[in-house]
């Protein structure tokens, strides 16, 4: 599915957006009042012409004092009849870019297994909005959503590699993949041990784009399905584990976004995806095992269901060996992050105040909320067990997202700056512009912040 705007046309019907309590456009006459139109959020009043045809429409935005409850107001307008529409006027307090992006995101449908893409209403891009940029951003988000929504039966580590190669071909990037026992031969022991019990071999996908400029490396967790390993998840917790590669999906979406908007120009981009399936078999890794990571630190496995940080650790070490200017990890890592901030607001961790401020402010500006959490040094002893350097699953359950971030930071030494995002990657209930299912988080915030961070 490709997001799109309608071509500019005098035949496009006018659409007025009004807040509750605002004056109704004079062109509408008395029809909205007679129809019971109250400008509730998403309420649409179709306006007839003198011959019984369609002359335009008014859509309610709800109470303007509650505007922050919706990120993408115009996504609700997909309930309009089929045809081309244009905004007759922009109401106060709304960003035209956000309105237009909301329209594009509202077009998304996952139809791989049911239904087919259908032509609904189309919107002429508002004046002053960079249509090509927004289409590129929305197309990248669609890629992320499609990948997360695809079940592991059709998106194991091998198929995730295929998706990465297809994107690389599309944007002119280079790909190298280290697979199976080659991971051991080239010193990626923890990626191998987590994925060795699965039918599809574990692998490290390495994508590069650009030759000059500051280096940005993005590491995305690619656990294509997570049974929990021998610490087997209960069925209720396993139901959404096709989304445990949401970090990888977001990393690929961000790469597509950077390339499609031109933001990749003048950067050296690298995306690393450790792609595995955490399965149960006779050769699965066990609770109590002690692993030696790529950087030489030993890790005691106290829960095989804390596997994401293990595969990320080897990938982060490898990435840091090139001393990138900025390294970012994206991972559906902890339930603790959801308990703290819910599904909408992923925490991120960064020791550099300037970078962290740029990220959080950019997220607020573009409707991609993120929230800074601390790399809290006094918790370091919690990830240091008695018999190894590190513990992959500290007991007690306290500060689970922070301790996971501290674990990852041990493998990020060498990067100029490091930021970790603990995302959810899933929309549990439909909202404007965000149907239930896979969703990208953090990518648009990163895109908007990069000029300030690396400029």
From TrEMBL:
Name of the protein this chain belongs to: M17 family metallopeptidase
Pfam families: Peptidase_M17, Peptidase_M17_N_1
Keyword Ribonucleoprotein: no
PANTHER family: LEUCINE AMINOPEPTIDASE-RELATED, PEPTIDASE B
InterPro entries: Leucine_aapep/pepB (IPR011356), Macro_dom-like (IPR043472), Peptidase_M17_C (IPR000819), Peptidase_M17_N_1 (IPR048816)
Keywords assigned: Aminopeptidase, Hydrolase, Manganese, Protease
Gene3D superfamilies per the UniProt record, alphabetical: Leucine Aminopeptidase, subunit E, domain 1, Zn peptidases
Region forming the signal peptide: none
The organism of origin for this protein: Paracoccus rhizosphaerae
Protein family per UniProt: Belongs to the peptidase M17 family.
Boundaries of every Cytosol aminopeptidase domain copy: 303-310
Source superkingdom: Bacteria
SUPFAM superfamilies: Macro domain-like, Zn-dependent exopeptidases
